[in-house]
Amino acid sequence: MGMPGGMEWILIALVVLLLFGGKKIPELAKGLGSGIKNFKKAVKDDEETEVADKKNDEIEKKAE
Hints:
The chain has 64 residues and is an all-alpha fold. It has one domain: Single alpha-helices involved in coiled-coils or other helix-helix interfaces (Up-down Bundle), CATH 1.20.5. Helices cover 91% and strands 0% of the residues. The longest helix has 58 residues, at 6-63. It is elongated, with a radius of gyration of 22 Å.
């Protein structure tokens, strides 16, 4: 089983359109984009916190 081809993507798009309607799809896409943006921001903030913690640990070790 590989990735869906052209006809499969068209069928998937039609099913989504039938299930959610034309008005709801842009709202869903906006929500998905916002969620991805928030996730990336949280990951970046977490990485920055880890780097700051490591620097603080190194400073404390040098002070001892």
